[in-house]
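Objective 1.3, modelling of assemblies. Example input:
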Amino acid sequence: MVLGFEYDVVQVTLLSLYVAGAATILGCMIGIPLGSLIGLKEFGGKGALKTITYTMYGFPPVISGLVIYYLFSRSGPFGALGVLFTPTAMILAETLLVIPLAAGITINEVSEVDKSIKDTIRALGASRRKSTLTVMREAWVGLVMAAMIGFGRCIAEVGAAYMVGGNIAGETRTLTTAIMLETRMGKFDYALGLGLVLISVALAVFFFMRLLQEKEHL
Amino acid sequence: MTAAVELRNATKRYGDVVAVKGANLAIQKGELFGILGPSGAGKSTVLRLLDLLDPPDEGAILVNGEEVSCRSRRADEVRERIGMILQKPVPLNRSVANNIAYSLQIRGWGEEETAKKVDEELEKYGLQERRGKNARTLSGGEMQRLSFARSTVFGPEILLLDEFSANLDPKNVALMERQISSYMQEDRSRTVVMVTHNIFQARRMCDKIALMWDGEVVEVADKSKFFEEPDDPRTAAFVKGDVVY
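Predicted structure (tokens):
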């Protein structure tokens, strides 16, 4: 118990950071390469795929939670893994939310890299694969922004985390689910205090990511 | 004799526009080959074909006698031995030193040998004081020197130059021309293909010249013949400066 809470706020904060951080990394690992492929390759149906990706920005967290709940519930196809009501399930649910964001922003950012830069990279002798990686590096500021937006969505997420995590004290309770709990119990001061912790943590992470983003390419 | 690089009956279309029509060009090892012609004649497209950047719609591209398909893995290997400088050089968003290092890194050079080679190039092109600065802060002349350094640092067998002096002042043009000459003198088997619409520059520098006209290669000849006794009336008009473009 810390500061009068009936649970360890430090542990809850660290779990929030862990879940949001891991989901952001996983989501970006899938979304950024996917977005680069869609953004840089020419193929039939590209416009439709882009529209679908952008539409998925609004993917409801409860649907993401529902999908993971179904897949990992006892009767689901992966029920035997025993992942439901663990941080892993929360990470998976939040990863589904980050993928379209990371992919969509990446599509936009790599498409915006000037054609003259893409031509220069190829003219310097880069293969198509290396050229794609270099274009991604040229779009660095935008790709960090994709990660920031993804992290922002995860750290503030409550619906999916509650659904597949269960808000179990000491195990799957995060700052957002704790705020929900405190509010329901009428402890508005505590809820507000946790809200301040949440905003401070997000601020610290965003500050670090801004430093990464502004780092001059040398 | 096997040509360093060759176009055989190459045609390239962009939509409805035929940029290059059935071009035949064979550029020998050790040659400084010029491609002259008015704007829109297809000179830059020919250079992109020679660099295997764009596939021809018809015909073939041969490098050292080997036909290479642009979309093949082999093309990536062959392109590692070709350097190209575009008309408007664009810096990558990284330091001057890392712009040069990039050409070596994508060719699999080790960290230590890359660092050593980059140091040599910075010294050679007078860019050592700018080494740590972002390349986007360079002046036009410095950028052109950087562009030349990063396209030649790996010692390409074939160097393709697209209007390299179009945006330079006379001092920097002279500097670049000297660099091209000394680059060729370092290794006599090196081949340079230069696109220009500057007749005087072609006369100063090239061994052999082709004239392109409306997507076609209308004449290929040694420099003296090209300027003194051209076969095609369009060449005669072009070298006399009677062509309005």
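Residues 5-89+157-168+184-240 of chain B form a domain with the Rossmann fold fold (CATH 3.40.50.300).
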